[in-house]
C-alpha cells in the first residue's frame, strides 16, 4: 500500500539584518509568501542558529553591529552547507568577489526591491532542490546496484531485462518493471494496487489477473536461467515480495 505524502513543511529562512525597517519588510513579505521567517538583528553564532533552527536558506547582511558578515559566513561554511544570500550596500566588485570566495551563493546589493529578492531566493531554492534530487537519485541508483550485485542478478534498464550467469531471462518490458519495482523494496510486501499503478500503469481491479500472470512468467523465466538467490513470493491477501533465499 502506498502511503500518502506528508504535508510539505514551509521553507525556513533565517534573515540577519540590523536595519529595522528593511528587516520588517523582509519578514512581512516572505511571511506573506508562505515562508517561515526567523529574524535576527545580530549574527551571533550563525552556525549554531542554523543547526538548531534547521534553516533552508540564510539572508545575511555584511555590516552587522556584532561583527563582519563575511567572517560569520566563513565560520558558517566550516560546519554548514545551507544556501546563503549576502545583502550589502557595499557594491564594489571586490566585495562581491570576497563574498563568493567565502562561500556565498548569491549577492543582493542594497537597495533592492522585494521582487528582486524573490527572484534570487526562488532561483536558489530551485537549484538546491534540483541538486538534492540529483543526489538522491544517484544514491538510489547506487543502492539498487549494490542490491542487484548482492542478489547476483544484473538489471539492464536499456535492454529491459535481467541477467544471471551470463544468461538473459528474456523479460517483457512489463515484467522488467514489476521486478525492478520489487527490487526497490526488498523484503517489503508491495500491494497489488501499488504494483498495478507503478509497473502496469493502470488501476487495480479485483477481476484483473494480469499481474498474477506476469509474476508467474517472471518466476518461470528466472527458473529457466537457474536463478535461485532470490524469489518473488506471494503474500496471500497482501501482495508480492522479493525475498532472498537462504542457502
Brief rundown of the structure:
By secondary structure, the protein is of the alpha/beta class. The protein has helices at residues 20-32, 46-53, 69-77, 93-101, 114-150, 173-183, 192-200, 210-224; strands at 12-16, 36-40, 57-61, 63-64, 67-68, 84-88, 106-109, 154-156, 161-164, 167-168, 230-235, 239-244. A 5-stranded parallel β-sheet has the order 2-1-3-6-7, with helices on both faces. A 3-stranded antiparallel β-sheet has the order 8-9-10.
Indicate the topology.
Elements: E1 12-16, H1 20-32, E2 36-40, H2 46-53, E3 57-61, E4 63-64, E5 67-68, H3 69-77, E6 84-88, H4 93-101, E7 106-109, H5 114-150, E8 154-156, E9 161-164, E10 167-168, H6 173-183, H7 192-200, H8 210-224, E11 230-235, E12 239-244
Parallel strand pairs: 1-2, 1-3, 3-6, 6-7
Antiparallel strand pairs: 4-5, 8-9, 9-10, 11-12
Q: Helical element count?
A: 8
User: In sequence order, what are the helices and strands, one letter per element?
Assistant: EHEHEEEHEHEHEEEHHHEE
Radius of gyration: 26 Å
The spatial strand order of the largest sheet comes to 2-1-3-6-7
Q: Name the CATH class of the largest domain.
A: Alpha Beta
- Give the overall silhouette: elongated
Distance between the termini: 30 Å
Description:
By secondary structure, this protein is α/β, with parallel strands linked by helices. It has helices at residues 20-32, 46-53, 69-77, 93-101, 114-150, 173-183, 192-200, 210-224; strands at residues 12-16, 36-40, 57-61, 63-64, 67-68, 84-88, 106-109, 154-156, 161-164, 167-168, 230-235, 239-244. The protein folds into two domains: 12-134, Rossmann fold, CATH 3.40.50; 151-244, Winged helix-like DNA-binding domain superfamily/Winged helix DNA-binding domain (Arc Repressor Mutant, subunit A). It is built from eight helices and twelve strands. The strands form four sheets. Strands 2-1-3-6-7 form a five-stranded parallel beta sheet, with helices on both faces. Strands 8-9-10 form a three-stranded antiparallel beta sheet. Helix 6 crosses helix 7 and helix 6 (173-183) packs across helix 8 (210-224). The longest helix has 37 residues, at 114-150.
